[in-house]
């Protein structure tokens, strides 16, 4: 048996790293980026969920279960594309 370091050395010594190249985006399927890219804009412009849901504070639901329900207030309804101005506070 060989060590992890020896195995890694054998693997890395058999890899040939290709030079970076410029390609049209439509020819890049199954390719790997040579460097990180960053967008100048956030898309979407906010944290977004594709599904309806609720925001709760974990401290407000400690001990809740299907047998022991808690009661929470709904403090806002936010339509798609809108941003709530409310803060989820204790309770």
Which class best fits the helix and strand makeup? little secondary structure
Strand content: under 5%
- Choose one word for the global shape: elongated
- Mean pLDDT comes to 87
Q: Based on DSSP secondary structure assignment, what is the total number of beta strands?
A: 0
Helical content stands at 10-25%
Q: Unreliable stretches, pLDDT < 50, 5 or more residues? A: none
Distance between the termini: 59 Å
Radius of gyration: 25 Å
Helix and strand element order: H
Could you describe the largest sheet, including whether it forms a barrel?
Answer: none
Describe this structure in words.
- The model has no long low-confidence stretch (mean pLDDT 87).
- The protein has one helix and no strands.
- It has one helix at 4-13.
- It is low in regular secondary structure.
- The longest helix is centred in the N-terminal third of the chain and has 10 residues, at 4-13.
Primary descriptors:
single chain; little secondary structure; elongated; 11% helix
Task: Produce a short descriptive summary.
This protein has 91 residues and is mostly loops. It has one helix at residues 4-13.
SSE layout and pairing:
Blueprint: H1 4-13
């Amino acid at each position: 048996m060989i060590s992890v370091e020896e195995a890694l050395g054998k693997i890395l010594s058999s890899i040939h790293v290709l030079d970076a190249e410029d390609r049209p985006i439509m020819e890049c399927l199954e390719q790997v980026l040579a460097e990180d890219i960053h967008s100048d804009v956030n898309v979407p412009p906010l944290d977004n969920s594709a599904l309806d849901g609720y925001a709760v504070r974990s401290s407000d639901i400690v001990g809740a279960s299907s047998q022991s329900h808690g009661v929470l207030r709904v403090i806002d309804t936010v339509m798609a594309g809108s941003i709530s101005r409310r803060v989820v506070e204790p309770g």
